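If it is no trouble, might I ask you for a protein's amino acid sequence along with its backbone structure tokens?
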Amino acid sequence: MQKLARTKIIATIGPSTWSDEVLLEMIENGLQMARINASFADFAELERVSTQLRRLSPKVAVMLDTMGHKIRVTGFEADRKLNEGDKIILIPETQTESPEGTIQITYPNLHKFVNKNNRILIDDGNIVFVVKDVKAKEVHCEVKVGGTLKKRKTVNVPNVHLDFPTLPEKDKQDIRYAVDHNFDYISASFIRNVEDVMAVREEMGETDTKLIAKIEDTEGVEEFDEILKVVDGIMVARGDMGVELPLEEVPIKQKQFIQKCRMAGKLVIVATQMLESMRENPRPTRAEASDVANAVMDGTDAMMLSAETSSGKYPIESVITMNTIAKRAEQVLRPQPVWGRTDASEETDVLCKSLVSMVDELDLKGVIVISQTGKTVRSLARHRIKVPIWNISNNPKLIRQTNLFRGVEGIYVKQLNQDRDSLVAKVAEIVYTQGLLDINDKIAIISGSSIKKKSLNSILEIAQVKDLLD
């Protein structure tokens, strides 16, 4: 049985995971991509963490997660205890005077868009205010659900359209940094529509860094189909989504978004609170174990750990636990073929779909894909076949990016411009010597045709390992 699950694991890097020893154990136990949250990181932090990860492993992808137009409380250091019935005034952080009973927020125009009886949710809804009045730039509130307010916690205003700039200045700088420093992915927070995506794309310029849209609010949910067309992947960011939308809608949207991403051959990630209790405990709750297993059964490519690994007490155990649960869930699944067109050719999509039944009927043990673009890999991986997909490329960045798709394992080969038969033999030998295949196993090989000037360029071949080895 393979050690690692086919579903991939993303972990947020923070104080709990800054040491080489911790990161190496996480990588050994399934970490495929490291997320650096720009909301809490400056350029020095981005450089330090990305350099450290590249030094530890050339295979681990690095993702910048932009701050986005998230509102936070600010202007205080010590925790504040809020009780039900307390009167609170929200003011812009730019206001010079902060009288007693006020809380500063990072959004200057809240007073323009809220009305009496609007709810304002703090810290993912753990604290709830209700607007009682608006006076000049002051939003007067009453605490309906109290709690301990910590610095930099988030502020959400459900069902109220707020006028944000398309792309905050910090995001522009962070995006340019990520592109210039060869990050593998950028995940853009609070994507509401295609215009938001285009603003990020414009800032990225010409690059092979991939773009993931985080769907977190009502507007993003409503525009999902259009957003999906213009990005490389989707993150189902359930934290803010669960605050902006009714909670009962979140699991339904998760399943719908995963299915749509798979149909399009786009990367899909499920994120937020997957093993939340492991911030403080070495074992998850039964509900969290079910959540991880259900995300796997829904068909996600990857799952993301947030505070569990950035600031939690058990980052290594969180990765091990997620991998263990995912691996067990995968054992009871059958392939999940889907319909729809990807960005590969129609012939490639049909060819890859035909492999789903061939794997069982011919007892294939794996598929070798020789790819320069990753399109064939994405077309095949969306069907969630139960055997490994070995993606052969001479592009390390492409390998890191495609490794995030479920069931894909990248193999680097420096020279791809050699004779096709020799190349296939070389790759088969690499896989065989790693102990991933036996001599009598049958595999499928997808590669470009040797016919010159052929525009449709995918061919499928079935072979035994022993026939490929010299």
Q: What stands out?
A: The two ends are 27 Å apart (CA to CA). The mean pLDDT is 93. The CA atoms of residues 288 and 364 lie 34 Å apart.
